[in-house]
Sequence to fold (883 residues):
Amino acid sequence: MGAAQSHLLYQIPSPPTYDRSLDDLIWIHEGGMEIPAIYREWKGDNGDAAVFSVIYMGSHYHDLGMCSQWLKTLQLTLRVNVLAFDYPGYGLHSGEPSEESMYKCALNVFTHAKNAMNIPVDRMLLFGKSLGTAVAIHLAYSIEAEARKSSCESIGGMTLITPFMSLSHIVGSKLKYTKADLFDSSKKLEKISVPVLTAHGEADEIVDPKHSRKAASKFPNVWKTLELDCNHHDIDFSDDLLDQWIEFVDHIGESVPEYKPRVVKQLVVPSQYRREQTVDNWLESIGLGKYAQQFLINGYFSMDVVKTLDIIDLQGMDIMDEQDQETILSSVTNLKSGGDGTAQEAKNESPDSSDIENASKKAKRVSYGPMEVNAKAFNEVLEHYQCSPSKSDTDIPVEWSEFMAFASSVSIPYWEDENDESLARGFFGEVVKGIWNDRPVIKRKLQYKKSQFRKFCREAVTLCQLKHPNIVDVIGACMEKNVCPCLITEYVAGGTLTSFLTSKALEEVTDKQRLDIAKGIAGGIQFLHNCVPPITHRDLTPNNIFLEEGRVPKLADFGMGRPPSFLYMAPELFSKHPSGLPGDIYSYGLILYYIITGTPPFEGLSSAEAAAKASKLNIRPSFPESVSPAWKTLITSCWQKNPLNRPTIDQVIQSLQKIESGTEVEEDSSPELHPVSLIEDPEARVGGKDPNASFAENLPAKSINSGCGLLSYQLGLLVNDVKYSDFTVCVGKEKFAVHRAILSARSENFAAQIDQADESRELQIDENVASAGSVLSLLKFLYSGYLNLSGENVLDVMNAANNLNILQAVDLCREYLEEHGVPIKVTEDGDEEDKNENTEKVRDVKESLVAAEASIQNVESVLDVLNRKLESVTARMNALPTL
Fold:
């Protein structure tokens, strides 16, 4: 395996995330290896010892320091002993990772557990996640083979998170080959007879769920196969996984006399809309509302969790005042006995109302929902859940207690009455018109799985804060766990855009009114796209746009995770690419076509036929002669096949403003580039090791990651490999073997040329257009997203990229040259105004990159906070009462 491939397969945290002071760290000396490991024994309150021991085999991107808290969660939740270890090369374990060394390491740990730690083999449970599933499968296969041979005991069972058949099954399916190579478990699965629990995320972005299903189907004794609403990285934190895992251990323990099953108690969450049941109001009732922030950030969102409080928890939240501690604990005791939480010792007075009023005046306040709340407080809480409101609300002081006030204000008790009128019903739910607080509203009953309840609550609270003239107002939500999740929105009496466009009223609409509708829709999209993080509508259709009085458009049904309608679906979604902001622009282009022409896009075709022709054949609706060139240019730019070539919503609005003012909308065209004219002086000196050398000799070689690789870096190695190709690109006498699907997905120019190619399946490129070396570099870029540049090839690659219309590569070349001080000009005759405009564009791009980096750092800091809080949350979960 090459170094680059090894680096991608074994993503070793560097430096290690722990040292020799790590809690419960032990060293296993077995089979010539010195293996760092964690061993944690579980003890019950009455001194009971654990019956089972879990041998934990983690993923390819974790070491012991990163999974230490998770191991404690397993120990306390499952009531088992936990033994985890690092693979060679990971953490403090010396050596190099490989399939053979990882298998050997796992076998050495098992041998040590059996012989030195005296753990009975039949009381051992294996656990593997991601790449660790292959290690766990191999270990179980080896143990069972020895058990059959020697007539001895085998392990008790095995849990696998995102298992797979072999590494080539994962990568090979994307390239249409099935050659087995590394971590091949396909022939081992059928020979493992112990009970097996498998789980995978439905949104797993690394191991396709179909591979996990296929692997699970091969085991002869599968207890359950779980399909969870999560991705590859957050599956560990699924409540459903932990609940089923407890039941799995209970299932295995049925044959063990001393094992005491643990029954999972289903907690009934109190209705959030009852203010006397919220944590912040309880604190206020005992005069300690000042501690609302500590309770919230430590996970005390429910009064059921509050009842588990003890003195250690309070000290862990930095509540050190002895009188306050006594007041809280006395109130908790009162709650446990069935009281309302009022304790005689709660003598602290509430903060002076005048102080609260003065503090509120100092803070900027914005109206998000039925009541005013502090925007900054809401912003930070949502960031805790990886959500956030719009950019303009990030400069407001924090008052955490107001978050609970907002949550209470938008949480509406579920109701049904005789005024309800069902307007529509489908697979994803039902739309009902009803009355709430004496006003007509729309109840959107959504079909969410039970495991998705938290996701619904996060999305609902986010939507409730989005207020804009072109967004349907989300008044609140029914967020009770035992009723149908509902969004409560305003009722827009004007009907949908579809009903308007199909009515006779359209004939009387002026061009100015059509433009106003288009601008209103774009304004709503702009608001969503400018949120932090941006909100993608995902299902932008005329049916999801409503017109209120004065024909003001309002967007509805956004961000709720439904599959988009076929007719308006962006082509990249049919290639299983993620939905993003450019997908909304494509849909907007088709809606704009409908508004301007009065004709539905792809008229005469079914939605499925239209979507197939748009994605596979790049067919778009034709324009009537009456449509002006300005509208044609804008609409055509919106429905470009390549998402990178579509304008942003801000650029769309600028084009609409030009149409309104009568300014001609310029077509998107790239300036003609020639190698000699790209820089001011090809012989310029730019410093470096040799100040007398030209820039070409001084510029360092660099591999630039565009962030848009179709799969990953190693795919660049498959260019010119005939085994994985079905097409040939010819430059002079040079021929490069490629795969048509990959080139078509990344380049509109190549897609058009490939469609026009004859049966020879060859594409000829003139050497005057691009050299063979530059074409090879660009092919590798289209495959992997990495562009390899140096002073010797940058001008050649840049010119070829421009001639082949691979504009992203052109931009990367420009940035590379500017980074090293090479002055660039667009054309030989470009005037000063053009240069200034290009300089401003580069400055804007750089500012955007700085802002993106700052956002990434914010997310990382939030994740650090969550990791630090996991241990205390785990302890409280374990303290919950059981039946």
